[in-house]
Amino acid sequence: MNAVLFPYVNKVGDNSRPNGAALWFGKLLEKLDRSLFEKESVMADWTHNYMCHVFKDNETSLFHEFQKYGYKTLLSEDWAEGTLNWPNCKGFDKPPINHYMRPFQNAMERKNHGVNVTKRHLKGKMCREQHHTLLDYLGQFLDAYPDQKKFSWTWASHLGHNSENGIAHSDNDFYNFMIRHRKQLENSFVFFMGDHGLRFGSVRKTFVGALDVNNPFLSISIPKELRKNTKILDIMRKNAKKLQTHFDTRSTMLDILKFHSASNFADTVPLEIPGEKGYSYLREPSTIRNCKNSPIPIQYCICQFNKTAVSTKNKLALSIGKQISYSVNEELKAGNFTKQCIEMKVDRIVSLLKYTQSMNGSDVYIVVFKMKKPSQANFKANVKILPTGKVKVLGMIERTDSYKNTANCIKSEHHRPYCYCKNQEDS
């Protein structure tokens, strides 16, 4: 299929929801702290309250865009809560597309829904997994509309969410699917991608794992005729050498839908789509791309700089630890969750890396630290030391281990990584 691999895609949010919002709606859900570059910060497009407590039916999603142009549409995820709902969010009130797999997932996961034989069918006892149903559903969709334009979104979370080994064991399933539907896919734009890397576990503690979590996979195959008769493949390969985000992936899809098809894919001049934050991969690159001018929160930036390890036992490390624990607790205080969640205290600085080059006269560090019992939570943060000696946290403090049910006493997704419930029975 002559797919082009994009190795420098940078995530724009911690987990699936903010990255999904960038793809589906073109919205930024996390603040861009630009103080490192002495620039004004950029606020999120939607607040957590709006994102979670207001149905998104009135917002223009990619699904609506393609439906307006006469496409048949499909959305399938491998669990009922899905990208916009977990945890404690409303998502869509009504199906946003023609074919929606959520009723099947509800039957699988909800009590008093579905039948036991279906539930057992996907518990591994019959050599069937969730991604098999996704591929079956997508195959049925492709076969059902042989002569109509189609837009489908298949999101498999279970395969790679909890283990670095999950995706590899499904290679043959995806390969066989593509072989079986080769003729249909050869006349299609196929995006094979992730939204973020593995967020916890032992691999997350390695250099590769720390990079992977912020560097989602993306490869794109274009229709066979366009590979032979246009410059698009060469242009995509140029763009693949630059820093990208899924805002660019979204803009590429909109370019295919609204603009490029009108020129028969001959117009490769850079295009700014009104209201969009990204640039199409199918057009000549227009600007230098870096974390300073792209919609990437600084804590996720995959650009690599020289760093040196410094002592985790000196006064500076102690000052950084105090400021970070203060910042974590201030987040809980701002959310009014101090009654439910314990006060976090730093147990030790695990590592402290100093950027070799100062940034606008300030020393910048990456710090990894562990909180005291009972949470023993692991966090990572970027900080800079101001000329006054004050420690300033840059961007969001990241939770790097799994907190699972220990934060279930609160519902705010933003605050849950910072919370360890005082009453664990509530969790």
Structural account:
- This protein is α+β, with helices and mostly antiparallel strands.
- The protein folds into 2 domains: 4-298, Alkaline Phosphatase, subunit A (3-Layer(aba) Sandwich); 307-426, Nuclear Transport Factor 2, Chain: A.
- It is 30% helix and 15% strand.
- It is built from 15 helices and 11 strands.
- The strands form 3 sheets. Strands 7-8-9-10-11 form a 5-stranded antiparallel beta sheet. A 3-stranded antiparallel beta sheet has the order 1-6-5. It has a 3-stranded parallel beta sheet with strand order 3-2-4, sandwiched between helices.
- Helix 4 (82-85) links the parallel strand 2 and strand 3 (99-100).
- The longest helix has 20 residues, at 315-334.
- The radius of gyration is 23 Å and the shape is globular.
- The model has no long low-confidence stretch (mean pLDDT 93).
- InterPro entries: Alkaline_phosphatase_core_sf, DUF229.
- This is Sulfatase N-terminal domain-containing protein.
Oligomeric form of this entry?
Answer: single chain
CATH topology of the largest domain: Alkaline Phosphatase, subunit A
Give the distance, in angstroms, between the N- and C-terminal Cα atoms: 47 Å
Annotation, overall tally of beta strands: 11
Using only C-alpha atoms, the radius of gyration works out to 23 Å
How much helix, percentage-wise, in residues?
25-40%
CATH architecture of the largest domain: 3-Layer(aba) Sandwich
The total count of helices amounts to 15
Structural category: alpha+beta
InterPro entries: Alkaline_phosphatase_core_sf, DUF229
Organism: Caenorhabditis nigoni
Protein name: Sulfatase N-terminal domain-containing protein
Pfam family, one: DUF229
